[in-house]
Design goal:
12 strands; 2 helices; globular; about 15% helix; about 190 residues; binds N-(carboxycarbonyl)-S-(naphthalen-2-ylmethyl)-L-cysteine; single chain; binds fe (iii) ion; alpha+beta
């Protein structure tokens, strides 16, 4: 099921549901090598979302040296196939950022603009607890649209929506059979 969010942005509802188990095993494997950590924002605040990643840095600079972990071929293939299904051919992901949301965790409205080639889309996979995704326009003050992202939902955005502001509202407590009390999100990018 495909749902258009905006121009060049779509949700592939439940696209990853049958792949959720092996996708989640990759998250656990990466986290065993590079544990999830809460970054400190430039303003000095500890982020409620915990992050790790494999592949290149994904535009999120490291404050400390970390063990390099390569992007597994099957993850890369999954992201390329999802992008193709959303109409983006020629996706060259080299990075997978993994976000972990405990109840109450949120991601403040931001733009993803650190990647070198903004012509490349981003593919995001939601696993576990649901969350309300907020997306806006090209200025922070633009009106927001709210969309519930559930287990297995994949969002692909690029082109004219690549620089839209977006964020995640605080995750509600709950239990999911695969992920327990957490929401996880994987974002595949061409960080360059
Ligand atoms: C952007 N992650 O890591 S991705 C991030 O669920 C990030 O963890 C969020 O934003 C997360 O940088 C959201 C999903 C997403 C979906 C649709 C979008 C981002 C979008 C539409 C336009 C712009
Ligand atoms: Fe983002």
């Amino acid at each position: 099921w495909q749902e258009v969010l905006a121009e060049d942005a779509m949700i592939l509802r439940r696209y990853a549901r049958d792949d959720a188990q092996w996708l989640f095993r990759h998250i656990m494997q990466v986290a065993s090598l590079r544990p999830f950590q809460h970054r400190i924002t430039p303003g000095g605040f500890r982020m409620s979302v915990a992050m790790t990643h494999c592949g290149s840095r994904g535009g999120y600079p490291e404050s400390m040296p970390v063990t390099p972990v390569s992007l597994p071929a099957e993850l890369k293939q999954f992201a390329v196939r999802a992008a193709g299904n959303a109409g983006f051919s020629g996706f060259l992901p080299d990075s997978c950022l993994m976000n972990r949301y405990a109840p109450g965790s949120k991601l403040t409205l931001h733009q993803d603009k650190d990647e070198k080639d903004l012509r490349q889309p981003i593919v995001s996979v939601s696993l576990g607890l649901p969350a309300v995704f907020q997306f806006g326009g090209f200025e922070r003050s633009d009106a927001l649209t709210r969309v519930l992202l559930e287990h297995g939902d994949v969002v692909v955005w690029g082109g004219r929506s690549r620089l839209r502001f977006h964020g995640i509202a605080p995750v509600k407590p709950g239990f999911h059979p695969l992920t327990g009390g957490y929401r996880y999100n994987m974002t595949f990018r061409c960080a360059g």
